[in-house]
Automatic annotation (TrEMBL):
<keyword id="KW-0805">Transcription regulation</keyword>
<keyword id="KW-0238">DNA-binding</keyword>
<dbReference type="InterPro" id="IPR036390">
    <property type="entry name" value="WH_DNA-bd_sf"/>
</dbReference>
<dbReference type="InterPro" id="IPR036388">
    <property type="entry name" value="WH-like_DNA-bd_sf"/>
</dbReference>
<dbReference type="Pfam" id="PF00027">
    <property type="entry name" value="cNMP_binding"/>
</dbReference>
<protein>
    <recommendedName>
        <fullName>Crp/Fnr family transcriptional regulator</fullName>
    </recommendedName>
</protein>
<dbReference type="GO" id="GO:0003677">
    <property type="term" value="F:DNA binding"/>
</dbReference>
<dbReference type="InterPro" id="IPR018490">
    <property type="entry name" value="cNMP-bd_dom_sf"/>
</dbReference>
<feature type="domain" description="HTH crp-type">
    <location>
        <begin position="144"/>
        <end position="215"/>
    </location>
</feature>
<dbReference type="InterPro" id="IPR014710">
    <property type="entry name" value="RmlC-like_jellyroll"/>
</dbReference>
<dbReference type="InterPro" id="IPR000595">
    <property type="entry name" value="cNMP-bd_dom"/>
</dbReference>
<dbReference type="InterPro" id="IPR012318">
    <property type="entry name" value="HTH_CRP"/>
</dbReference>
<feature type="domain" description="Cyclic nucleotide-binding">
    <location>
        <begin position="10"/>
        <end position="113"/>
    </location>
</feature>
<keyword id="KW-0804">Transcription</keyword>
<dbReference type="Pfam" id="PF13545">
    <property type="entry name" value="HTH_Crp_2"/>
</dbReference>
<dbReference type="GO" id="GO:0006355">
    <property type="term" value="P:regulation of DNA-templated transcription"/>
</dbReference>
Length: 222
């Protein structure tokens, strides 16, 4: 677990005392597919890091349908906003697949930060990192064509798999989720995926996409 967490730049930069506290105070928990880590409107219940699986951050749109805003990979910390302002959760965090998490409860985390206020700056850094990612993602949505956005999202979803020695990767994401992440219609997303499949870069399957050639996919994004 420690090796995985060290791949995250934020956790890797933490002072040893703070990193040790998070690991020693955290509680490992496993949630099934479609179970919620937290729901929109719930009170702050702590900080989380995803160890295995995929989690989507979403809300319900005006039509009563789930609108997916982001998908979290393993090694990503989340839940820090309510820790800072004490306000209720603004979004749902739902498990796309069975997921294993480390949960640092709010009560002990707040007490630790009250006793060691210097470490609040690292929580602020976590928020700052997320804000930079949001601006970067918004720039992609505003400046790149739909096909390129689909490719970028596939690369982001597979970022924890590209260093593996295996030649293929199974991404448990359906076309509806991918189209929402790429801010395009499902039809346009399907057309882009079919182009990639024709090049033997990906293979389309029910409820998942198999990436056959990561280097080729990365070359298309440059």
């Amino acid at each position: 677990m420690h090796t995985l967490l060290k791949t995250d730049p934020w956790f890797a930069s933490l002072p040893e005392e703070f990193a040790h506290f998070l690991l020693s105070s955290g509680q490992c928990t496993t949630l099934g597919m479609n179970e919620y880590v937290f729901r929109n409107g719930e009170s702050d219940n702590g900080l989380f890091v995803l160890l295995e699986g995929l989690i989507c951050i979403s809300n319900i749109n005006l039509e009563g349908e789930e609108a997916i805003l982001a998908v979290l990979n393993k090694g990503i910390w989340f839940g820090e906003v309510s820790l800072i302002d004490g306000a209720p959760r603004t979004h749902d965090a739902r498990c796309i697949t069975e997921s294993r998490l480390l949960h640092v409860p709010s009560l002990c985390l707040r007490q630790f930060l009250a006793d060691n206020p210097v470490y609040w700056q690292h929580i602020a850094q976590l928020v700052s990192n997320k804000l930079r990612l949001i601006f970067s993602a918004y720039e992609v949505l505003q400046t790149l064509p739909a096909h390129e956005r689909v490719i970028r999202q596939l690369l982001m979803l597979g970022r924890n798999y590209t260093e593996q020695t295996v030649s293929t990767t199974r991404l448990p994401i359906n076309q509806l989720i991918l189209s929402q992440l790429a801010a395009t219609s499902r039809q346009t997303c399907n057309q882009s995926l079919k182009k990639l499949a024709a090049l033997h870069i990906i293979k389309l399957n029910y409820q998942h996409i198999e990436v056959l050639d990561w280097p080729a996919l990365m070359r298309l994004s440059t």
